[in-house]
Amino acid sequence: MDVTHPPGALPSATGEFLHDFLLAPARHNPDSPAVVESGRPGTTTVTTYAHLRSRVALYARELDALELEIGSRVLLEAEVTADSIALLLACSRAGLTFVPVSPETPRERLLSLIGTARPALHLQAQDGKREDLPPGFATARFGAGGIVGERRPAPAPRRRRTPTVTDPAYIIFTSGTTGRPKGVVMSHRAVVAFYRGMLAHDIARPGDRIASTSPLQFDFSLLNIGLALGSGAAVVPVPQALVRWPRHFLRVLRDTEATQVNGVPSIWRQVLRHEPERLADLDHLRGVLFCGEEFPLPELRRLQQLRPGTRIVNCYGATESMACSFEDVPDPLPEDVERLSIGVAHPGAEMLLVDESGRVVDHPGTPGEIHLRSPALFSGYWDDPEATRTALVPDPLCPQSGQLVLRTGDLAVQGEKGEFYFCGRTDSQVQINGNRVELGEVERRLMEFPGATAAAALPLPEPGGGSRLAAFVVMAARDSRPTAGDLREFCARTLPAYMVPREIRLLDTLPTTTNGKVDRAALAASAASEPAPAPTAATAPVPGER
């Protein structure tokens, strides 16, 4: 059945879609800034809510003219800009599912994503550099003038009439244990439920300017966009190339008059080390929100010293629920504090702990795995029902109800007042500069190198806080052995920059425990006792890791 309707006028459905929720301020304050972008030093470009709404409408009409099936995936390869924000909202309005991808994604990984997600269209900015996509794959470019098609999608009948709020709004692909990216599917209803829970914390207000330092394919950027637009504030996208350089980063914050900065804790490390005076002089800055990894307490205290009175919020959560808790950091942070609280779940959600035997933990100080009950849970992993069943499990308090909760894989304990404290992971998943990395995927790639017989990856602590990804590889005996740089370059062909080990060591054998497993503690100890290799092709920062 071929369903047709006027371009840009998809039938409305009951309930809130992503675009409905985030464009609501355009009805009340159309002339307020929605996106503030930094150009040359001392200049900014402001997109008002009225302009953003008009651009969304333009993009939605042009997407609808392509006659894609409702629910089709659109690969959106772009940085965070006013145009890309408008485009993802236009996908929502047109009933399409956007899949954000970094322009720095290696071609082999992009092809893997295309093979997995089977998108109907690839979209990139007008100045995008991607030109090596498979023949026959529909492509287009977008900018201020609209969407310009390059290769039109093949005609197909439209079998659906009406989008619903249970449809996928987006798919975020993260590192996966099986060696292929894992797609987290989030519905409109789940995203809006999360935004409502987050906004109840009154973190941002109309007139604020929220600096977003995360790339578009990292769901933290979607949290930032939702926090800003959902509050009637403005998004301030910080280009990834500038986040890495303290002086340029602070220049963007100054020029845009950012009132709040959201990002992983590691964005502050070089700023605190090299530009503390410039940070102290940012008169407009009054809020910081961090997520993705623990904030080293000495750095956190230094930030409070430089910016007294700044509200600092510790955000905790997984991509499968975008996040789930927001807890204010005490100001000043007491000297005897050794671990930050992640608080409790946002309004409308609830965290509980479950021990290894499946029993709910109800005693303070007893560790358990966090299970999350929430209307903001993901729908499942794209095309992976087995992994979905592992993560979405029956409610341990009442399995008879059929209700599912998220088994996060995170360990925590509760304090005397019911607050939670994160303690680590139950699996091989780690956080590197706020990015989720499955060690198994890194190891699998290393084992694909010709002659590799064993590999182990693990995070190693950095002297100033945070972690770097290291790998230990055993090669078969042969006349010519590869260098660590060869292995690193091999990884970079298919893995995103944050998953390429910064440090690679070649060993004759991997140490094992008494039960035959790789002794990761011994590897970490040996790395700590031996100086790290000098910065070479094997250890120098890759693009995106300054």
CATH H-level superfamily of the largest domain: ANL, N-terminal domain
- Briefly note the CATH topology name of the largest domain: Rossmann fold
Structural class: alpha/beta
The count of β-strands is 27
| Percentage of β-strand residues | 25-35%
Average pLDDT level: 90
Please describe what this structure looks like.
This protein is of the alpha/beta class. The protein has 3 domains: 18-328, ANL, N-terminal domain (Rossmann fold, 3-Layer(aba) Sandwich); 350-425, Roll (Luciferase, domain 3), CATH 2.30.38.10; 430-529, GMP Synthetase, Chain A, domain 3 (2-Layer Sandwich). It has 16 helices and 27 strands. Strands 11-10-12-13-14-15 form a 6-stranded mixed sheet, covered by helices on one side. A hairpin with a 7-residue loop joins strand 8 (168-174) and strand 9 (182-187). The termini are far apart. The model is unreliable at 1-14 and 535-546 (pLDDT under 50).
Keywords for this structure?
Luciferase, domain 3; disordered N terminus; GMP Synthetase, Chain A, domain 3; 27 strands; globular; six-stranded mixed beta sheet; six-stranded antiparallel beta sheet; 546 residues; disordered C terminus; 26% strand; 3 domains; Rossmann fold; alpha/beta
What's the structural blueprint in terms of helices and strands?
Blueprint: H1 18-22, H2 25-28, E1 33-38, E2 44-48, H3 49-65, E3 73-77, H4 82-93, E4 97-101, H5 107-117, E5 121-125, E6 139-143, E7 146-151, E8 168-174, E9 182-187, H6 188-199, E10 209-212, H7 219-230, E11 234-237, H8 240-243, H9 246-256, E12 260-263, H10 269-274, H11 276-280, E13 287-290, H12 297-306, E14 311-316, E15 325-328, E16 350-354, E17 360-361, E18 368-373, E19 380-381, H13 385-391, E20 392-394, E21 404-414, E22 420-425, E23 429-432, E24 435-438, H14 439-447, E25 452-461, E26 467-475, H15 484-492, E27 503-507, H16 520-529
Parallel strand pairs: 3-4, 3-5, 5-6, 10-11, 10-12, 12-13, 13-14, 26-27
Antiparallel strand pairs: 1-2, 6-7, 8-9, 9-19, 14-15, 16-17, 16-18, 18-21, 20-21, 21-22, 23-24, 25-26
Helix pairs in contact: 3-4, 6-7
